[in-house]
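re the bet — no i am not wrong, look at it urself. input seq straight from the record:
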Amino acid sequence: MRIIDRGIAIKGEQGTDYQSCLFPGFCVLPSGRWIVTCRAAPARNINWNQRVFLSYSDDEGKTWSKPFSPFKPKILNGKIGVFRGAYLTYLDNNEIFATLHWIDYSDPDLPAFNEKTEGVLDCFIFTSRSYDNGLTWSDPEFVDTSIFKWPAPITGPALYPGSDCIIIQFELNKPYYDTSQWTHASILFFSYDRGKSWPEYFIVGKDPENKIFYWDQRPGVLNDGTILDMFWTYNNKTCSYLNIHARCSRDRGKTWSEIWDTGVSGQPGHPVSISGNRIVMPFIQRDRFPVIKIRTSSDGGKTWQKNSEMVIYSSEEKFRHSEKKTMADTWAEFNKFSVGWPITAKVNDTDIIVAFYNGVNPDSTNIEWARIRF
């Protein structure tokens, strides 16, 4: 395997209100168009003037359109909110499905995370659709997750295993001023009518003792229909990271395996199938300095061979995970990241894209990509 091309899809322009570009999404359409999305803002840890950027390329990344913001602020429950994340999934028949992360913007000066309570600003889910290769989008529709009562930020694009089944991924955070204990869970929400209704859900990652957080889930649908879900895994008692964990379903999410330890440290991206019955997983490690890597698995994700590892990006930034005593320490560390969020997109059975954010400091970041051939 080798990197055959790389570039910048969306550049965070210094001194502008979009110099911070974070949390990319990447979608490859059957037409050959590549679409990148991200959260754009003047700086990483602020709410005001944040929005979703979208850019596309029709020449496999050689040139990119000027970024634009198709999703405008929307009122929910009497509160004005903005979209800070959008992740795209191609369904079929020229339909692209966008899963949108709405966040409360009624007080733009509030930070997203409340250090005193460990709560977050209200986060909810909307969806939108495009039928013209991502140029125009339908008015976003609210997805009711009130059964869970807590904020529900999305963790990536919807899954589409086919037959009109769409699966939305999200996790549970705690309301901003709530002083009760945060009980984290990673959840999949199921629709069987292309997103008209959402009658079922499955809690795919939750520790009954609330000791282990299976957060930032990264599920992917493999070639054989298996849903493989990867978790950035965190010990909430010791405030330390564990190896990436995983679990899978072979019946479209009806039943699930037990969670297992993959033996790989770091924060994962979602897995994709390639030729030779192999699975590729991107991940970032921050033990000494930020390094984005990939590994492959030939046994359904149970093990990830060290000799299959390849570095996609290595930073000279001297950063490593610091000692943490509280969740507030953990969130403060998040805001120091200037490299991260590796995600994948499949071009064909031999080529994949790994995209990520990268910059000179946490408040000045681009959306970059690399194309890997196996």
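see?? The radius of gyration is 19 Å. told u. also The mean pLDDT is 95. so pay up
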